[in-house]
Design goal:
- The complex is a heterodimer.
- Chain A is mostly beta strands.
- Chain A is built from no helices and eleven strands.
- Chain B has no helices and eleven strands.
- Classes of the chains: A mainly beta, B mainly beta.
- At the A-B interface, β4, β5, β9 and β10 of A face β4, β5, β9 and β10 of B.
């Protein structure tokens, strides 16, 4: 079982729609959860971090964490073509090192 | 306020040569992390360093790879006797402190191509 799993996509949504990105993790000891966005050929850029169960909202982005189900998600409201990128889910379970999923490619069509 | 800096941005080496990748963390950050992204693969942790100390090198290949973060100067990831399988993007990240809630900020990466 992979430590952090994401659907590779691509996830295609029309402009203005809600994009829902999902991630599951295997280690119940995971403590912190992050969503990074990576454009092709670029470096990862932090979108959201979440540490406790529930929802966390920041602008058009909402992160949701359910530790009992070992599940974390990212919702993007009013999706824009500029949101087209690969979204990486990452967790920290010990020290400070990030364990990443392979990412979900999001395509937002105008 | 400069972010994480990495150089070179692109590096071409022939098999058997050495590659040296440099990373200067953000101002005020004393913790550095190196990650590797192979083509079509996810980001994989390699090594975590603090000034003059290696905290966690569990993701580093046992041979040919080494890392340091001296008291003065950038962190360096060194790959000796490179092979084609080392071709990848190498990213450095930094954080102000260690801890499970510290955000890591990534540099632009070094794209290594081994011919």
């Amino acid at each position: 079982q992979k430590e952090v799993e994401q659907n590779s996509g691509p996830l295609s949504v029309p402009e203005g729609a809600i994009a829902s990105l999902n991630c599951t993790y295997s280690d119940r000891g995971s403590q912190s959860f992050f969503w990074y966005r990576q454009y092709s050929g670029k470096s990862p850029e932090l979108i959201m971090s979440i540490y406790s169960n529930g929802d966390k909202e920041d602008g058009r982005f909402t992160a949701q964490l359910n530790k009992a189900s070992q599940y974390v998600s990212l919702l993007i409201r009013d999706s824009q073509p500029s949101d087209s990128a690969t979204y990486l889910c990452a967790v920290i379970k010990g020290y400070s090192t990030l364990t990443f999923g392979k990412g979900t490619m999001l395509l937002v069509s105008p | 306020n400069a972010g994480v800096m990495q150089n070179p941005r692109h590096l071409v080496r022939r098999r058997g040569q050495e590659a040296r990748l440099r990373c200067s963390p953000m101002k005020g950050h004393s913790h550095v992390y190196w990650y590797r992204q192979l083509p079509e693969e996810g980001l994989k942790f390699m090594v975590y360093l603090q000034k003059e100390n290696i905290i966690d090198e569990s993701g580093m290949p046992k041979e040919r790879f080494s890392a340091e973060f001296p008291k003065e100067g950038p962190s360096i990831l060194r790959i000796q006797q490179v092979v084609r399988g080392d071709s990848a993007a190498y990213f450095c990240a930094s954080s102000p402190a260690g801890g499970v809630q510290e955000t890591q900020y990534f540099g632009p990466g070094t794209r290594l191509l081994v011919l």
